[in-house]
Design brief:
- By secondary structure, this protein is an alpha/beta fold.
- The protein has two domains: about 110 residues, no CATH class; about 180 residues, Nucleotidyltransferase, domain 5.
- About 50% of the residues lie in helices and about 10% in strands.
- A hairpin with a 2-residue loop joins strand 1 and strand 2.
- Helix 6 packs across helix 7.
- The longest helix has 19 residues.
- The radius of gyration is 21 Å and the shape is globular.
Length: about 300
């Protein structure tokens, strides 16, 4: 269900759109989600989707093999049910005459968003209990009266020349401004902590700050949570499977994908990073927001400063 919601947020059409339009939108996400999840999200048959994919001239035998292998993986994963990791799935497929390797299966599982359940130890169980107690302090209250009262953050990834690159952003809810962003080849705790530290310095270490994110492992890590506690920052989490709890960050990523990334063919990490930098500069300084009475994020913050100077 979580993947379905995410797909529906990313496509630029609805379930009731013409079939060809739905196929074109789903093709853009091909490789990032399982074919099953894509087709279920927009009510398209898998056979129709495969025909559309294979008719495209740029599709190679390599692409076809990846699609077919993902179907084998999805079927085996569902049969387990959801208990098998890459090693066991590769072994099952080998028994069925499908040649592959655990490394290749692991790569495709990451693309498909598949993760096997863990065999819980007492420590794992206690950790899951702690995670369950994480609270949503924000409660979708996205309208804020002052800058540096609530920051929201998220991480997304893209594949550039066969390698994943991850973007971490921190936005101020008051102005929707991207305070800081970073691009990294690793989706690590360091990516999130370094992004936060830079934002915290840039904004002169604001007090009475709330930091909201999803329950990704980087944000729930001991290192990051300790960093926030040390700076007396209240941490808030979206509920599991509720992307709308972090709608502002989700909306930003939808905008950058639609307006910049999906319109560009990247040939290097450097080109990708420059593209992201350029778009965020445009987003902060030139792109008006309806929620800001059609002002830009920078314009909104400037107006706030001017008002305080007049009243102060």
């Amino acid at each position: 269900m979580e993947q379905k919601i995410e797909i529906l947020q990313r496509v630029n059409c609805t379930v009731s759109a013409p079939l060809q339009e739905k196929l074109q939108e789903l093709a853009k996400l091909h490789g990032q989600y399982s074919v099953h999840a894509l087709c279920e999200a927009l009510c398209v048959s898998r056979g129709t989707f495969y025909n559309h994919i294979f008719r495209r001239k740029e599709v190679t035998a390599y692409d076809k093999r990846r699609v077919e292998m993902k179907e084998h993986i999805q079927a085996t994963f569902d049969e387990s049910p959801q208990r098998f990791g890459a090693n066991k799935i590769a072994a099952v497929l080998a028994d069925r005459g499908v040649r592959t390797s655990p490394k290749y299966v692991a790569e495709l599982m990451r693309e498909m968003g598949l993760q096997s359940v863990s065999i819980y130890s007492k420590r794992d169980y206690q950790k899951s209990e702690r995670l369950a107690k994480k609270q949503n302090m924000l409660q979708r209250q996205f309208k804020v009266d002052e800058p540096n009262h609530v920051w929201v953050s998220d991480v997304t990834c893209f594949k550039v020349r066969g390698k994943y690159l991850y973007i971490c952003v921190i936005l101020d809810l008051f102005s929707r401004k991207v305070v800081v962003h970073r691009v990294s080849p690793k989706n690590s705790t360091y990516l999130v902590t370094s992004t936060f530290r830079q934002a915290y310095r840039n904004r002169n270490e604001p007090q009475q700050l709330m930091f909201h994110s999803d329950q990704g492992p980087q944000y729930t890590s001991t290192t990051f949570r300790k960093l926030l506690r040390m700076n007396k920052i209240l941490q808030s989490f979206s509920k599991s499977g509720r992307p709308h709890d972090n709608a502002v960050a989700e909306s930003f990523f939808a905008s950058i994908k639609r307006e910049e990334i999906y319109r560009t063919q990247y040939h290097s990490k450097r080109q990708f990073m420059k593209s992201v930098d350029t778009y965020i500069e445009f987003y902060n300084t030139k792109r008006p927001h309806s929620t800001l009475n059609h002002k830009t994020p920078d314009g909104c913050e400037l107006l706030h400063v001017q008002r305080k100077e007049r009243t102060g």
